[in-house]
């Protein structure tokens, strides 16, 4: 994926300002920066949950910004997303929550009656085993801990067989130990399956520990791009210069 000159805003206020970057096939890219820097907006522009006001997003040979709604629906099938607040259906079982990741491939009637194909159910069970939730398959989502809920979200994104994973603040609702476990799990699975990841994360330590490349935003402007090893104090000072401590 390649992003060039990306701009976005709300109600006349500019949020992202001419942001450029690439995500290669083996990349795990972290986006860091202070609150209000535009990190979540950037993530959500990629699958047009937020509409860019300018720029291009090249993915699978097409400019996502210029796609029609039907073309966008097709493209979104290939972009998995893991959300900060999990976005699970509380009263639905764990396995049914995972299977909602197949809705982009399933007809309306099939999805309404949860008549998913047997291979999708088998795939969901395999993914739930991989994320450590085999014993919780039939539990309701609202019976799970925060870490378990995020693992359901990971499995739901993976059942799409995505070619890109967007991860929006996956650890902000978790305690430090569970946050590290979740980041390790996402990293391991992305490497196993060869899925590039673009991850908005507030924890700089986790970003440097698990990600292969880091982008630093401040007030919608890219202030840094490089490896975790190159993210020194002067770079952090520039990225976080406007944050009130």
UniProtKB/TrEMBL annotation:
GO MF entry, a single one: ABC-type phosphonate transporter activity
Coiled-coil regions, chain positions: none
Highest taxon listed in the record's lineage: Bacteria
Pfam families per record: ABC_tran
ATP-binding among keywords: yes
SUPFAM superfamilies: P-loop containing nucleoside triphosphate hydrolases
Gene Ontology cellular component annotations, sorted alphabetically: membrane
Record CDD domains: ABC_PhnC_transporter
Keywords of this entry: ATP-binding, Cell membrane, Membrane, Nucleotide-binding, Translocase, Transport
Sequence ranges assigned to domain ABC transporter in this UniProt record: 1-244
Transcription regulation found in the keyword field: no
PANTHER family to which the protein is assigned, alphabetical: AMINO ACID IMPORT ATP-BINDING PROTEIN, PHOSPHONATES IMPORT ATP-BINDING PROTEIN PHNC
Protein name (record): Phosphonate ABC transporter ATP-binding protein
Protein's organism: Allopusillimonas soli
């Amino acid at each position: 994926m390649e992003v060039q000159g990306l701009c976005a805003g709300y109600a006349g206020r500019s949020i992202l300002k001419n942001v450029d970057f690439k995500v290669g096939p083996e990349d795990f890219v972290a986006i860091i920066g202070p609150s209000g820097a535009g990190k979540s907006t950037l993530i959500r522009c990629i699958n047009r949950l937020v509409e860019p006001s300018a720029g291009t997003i090249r993915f699978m040979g097409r400019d996502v910004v210029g796609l029609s709604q039907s073309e966008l629906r097709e493209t979104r099938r290939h972009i998995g997303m893991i959300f900060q607040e999990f976005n699970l259906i509380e009263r639905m079982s764990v396995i049914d929550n995972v299977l909602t990741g197949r809705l982009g491939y399933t007809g309306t009637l099939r999805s309404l009656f949860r008549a998913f194909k047997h291979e999708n159910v088998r795939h969901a069970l395999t993914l739930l085993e991989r994320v450590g939730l085999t014993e919780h398959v039939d539990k309701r989502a609202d019976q799970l801990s925060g870490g378990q809920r995020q693992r359901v979200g990971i499995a739901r994104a993976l059942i799409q067989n995505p070619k890109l994973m967007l991860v929006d603040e996956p650890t902000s609702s978790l305690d430090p130990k569970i946050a590290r476990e979740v980041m390790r799990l996402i990293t391991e699975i992305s490497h196993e399956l060869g899925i590039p990841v673009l991850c908005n994360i507030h924890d700089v330590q986790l970003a440097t520990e698990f990600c292969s490349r880091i982008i630093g935003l401040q007030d919608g402007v890219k202030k840094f791009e490089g490896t975790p090893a190159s993210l020194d104090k002067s770079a952090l000072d520039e990225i976080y210069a406007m944050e009130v401590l």
